Structure prediction request, 80 residues.
Amino acid sequence: MTRATWTDERMDDLSVRVDELARRMDQQFERVDRQFERVDERLDRMADRIDSLQRSMLQLGGGMIATFAVGFAGLIATQL
Prediction:
């Protein structure tokens, strides 16, 4: 059975419940925001590590290519 009329007391009760719900939601959103900040920090650190690894791989690859080039040039020079 539902009521068809809203008394001032019922409206005040509803207002209090809505305010409490809004306060709880704000607290939850603050907590979620803090969690996202921590995730962002972790992703930034991970991106730095990946950049460092990529730089090392490029240096190693460049060094290997240079070594092969010098080795082949030496091999060709000794066969002439």
